[in-house]
Design brief:
Layout: E1 4-7, E2 10-13, E3 16-17, H1 18-25, E4 29-33, H2 34-47, E5 54-59, H3 66-74, E6 78-81, H4 84-92, E7 100-102, H5 109-118, E8 122-125, H6 128-140, E9 145-152, E10 174-175, H7 179-187, E11 192-198, H8 209-227, E12 234-236, H9 254-264, E13 271-274, H10 278-281, E14 285-295, E15 301-305, H11 314-318, E16 324-326, E17 333-339, E18 348-356, E19 363-366, E20 388-392, E21 395-400, H12 405-409
């Protein structure tokens, strides 16, 4: 459920009519619903009520906006970060350092030191070499870094190839068959408190079967490590639950996921750690755009909008579906391709799709844009960086300003020897 609904024929975010936002902020613009974020955060936690001791860390990469992070911090969520910048954002939003998990396959020595400086709760190690580096840095400071070893279980998540992370050929983690030996070597290092294992097989999962297969393998690994004399207190099970991008889609609910977790992990006697991202933020946001003009095409009309692939990249890079709706629907539909103004053939949001009929200057939205939307935006074609708005009941605020090309250009410099 989300809080983007029609009221008196006009699409609203909670109690704010979307045209009111467009008139004040302009388009394209991302619009988030506080009520939706809070509801999804609660529902995910409630789904894990039978899973024992848990730790929830929101995947900052899915939506790093400070206001969004603040809402989730108030819901008791920590942060799963993959860069020093995300770590700083999580702290700035009020998330506790001890509730921050540092993931990511390419942590630099500077980022490892930053994590130690801030006193974060856990490093998820992606390789033996990373563990050695962290141990050396921590030992030199007279510290022990809390860590888990990320394992690649060689499980196909059944998702898009570009967001699959748990197959043998993916770059993440260490192969499960060599994990016990690597764990044994790293556990002897003075600078590490290697307290468990971590796994994450991909994003936007539509079925629980791959996750259950993965977690079953992790349970056997935990048993094997304990049999070898290691103390295992934490298992990070990652994230990856999908959300419905199409009206007919019905991915597993947090309740279904939690029931599977409770069954598979029974007897593990650990703190289970989770890193939800899309399932919390995805349907909490939309991207609003305005129609520039309708252009006749050979097979169908082109609806040219002021949003482009630089504002919402997922359709261009993943062939992802985002449901398009008119802000003031008439009940009529049309078959059209919805495209942006960028000089790339991949700047297309929908190809020959049945959509609400729109005309020049009408407003429309792309749904399920609260995750991996604004965070992936860029300024290609010297376009402005898209702004973000948060709605709370009957009020709204700009929580990320539109950054104009002139501001970006001011950070560039022509060397004297070219003048």
């Amino acid at each position: 459920m989300d809080h983007f609904q029609l009221k008196d024929g006009v699409l609203h975010a909670e109690n704010v009519a979307l045209p009111a936002i467009a008139e004040q902020v302009g388009t394209p613009v991302y619009v988030y619903s506080r009520a939706t974020l809070e509801r999804h955060a609660r529902v995910f936690r409630e789904g894990l009520k039978d899973a024992g001791k848990i730790h929830l860390a929101f995947a900052v990469k899915s939506n790093p906006n400070l206001a969004v992070l603040k809402i989730l911090a108030n819901q008791g969520y920590g942060a799963d970060v993959v860069s020093g910048g995300e770590l700083e954002r999580a702290l700035a939003a009020g998330m506790k350092a001890e509730d921050i998990v540092f993931s990511g396959v390419g942590k630099s020595s500077a980022e490892l030191m930053l994590g130690l400086d801030k006193g974060i709760g856990q490093f998820n190690l992606e390789s033996e070499e990373e563990g050695q580096m962290l141990a050396e840095i921590a030992a030199a400071r007279g510290e022990q870094a809390p860590a888990t070893l990320r394992v690649n279980p060689d499980v196909d998540a059944g998702t898009h190839a570009k967001i699959s992370t748990g197959k043998a050929e993916n770059k993440f983690g260490v192969a499960i068959d060599v994990a016990p030996d690597i764990f044994a070597r790293l556990s002897k290092l003075d600078g590490l408190n290697l307290r468990g294992v971590a796994v994450h097989i991909g994003s936007q999962l539509q079925k629980l079967d791959p996750l259950e297969k993965c977690y079953t393998r992790m349970g056997q690994l935990v048993s094997d490590l304990r049999a070898a004399g290691h103390t295992i207190t934490h298992v990070d099970l990652g994230g990856g639950l999908g959300v419905p991008y199409k009206p007919e889609e019905s991915p597993p609910s947090p309740a279904d996921y939690g029931a599977m977790i409770a069954r598979v992990t029974q007897g593990w006697d650990v703190t289970l750690m989770f890193e939800p991202g899309r399932v919390i933020a995805g349907n909490s946001g939309v991207m609003m755009t305005q129609v520039i003009r309708i252009k006749p095409g050979v097979n169908s009309d082109f609806v040219i909008v002021d949003a482009a692939m630089n504002d919402l990249m997922r359709p261009a890079i993943y062939d992802a579906w985002h449901h398009f709706e008119a802000v003031r629907p008439t009940g009529e539909t049309m078959t059209a391709s919805i495209v942006g103004p960028i000089c790339e053939s991949s700047d297309i949001f929908a190809k020959e799709r049945d959509v609400d009929r729109v005309q020049t200057d009408d407003f429309g939205i792309f749904r399920t844009a609260g995750a991996y939307g604004a965070t992936m935006a860029n300024t290609y074609n010297s376009r402005p960086l898209v702004p973000e708005v948060l709605v709370d009941g009957n009020k709204f605020a700009v929580v990320a300003e539109r950054i104009e090309p002139a501001t970006i250009m001011a950070a560039e410099h022509v060397p004297d020897w070219l003048k």
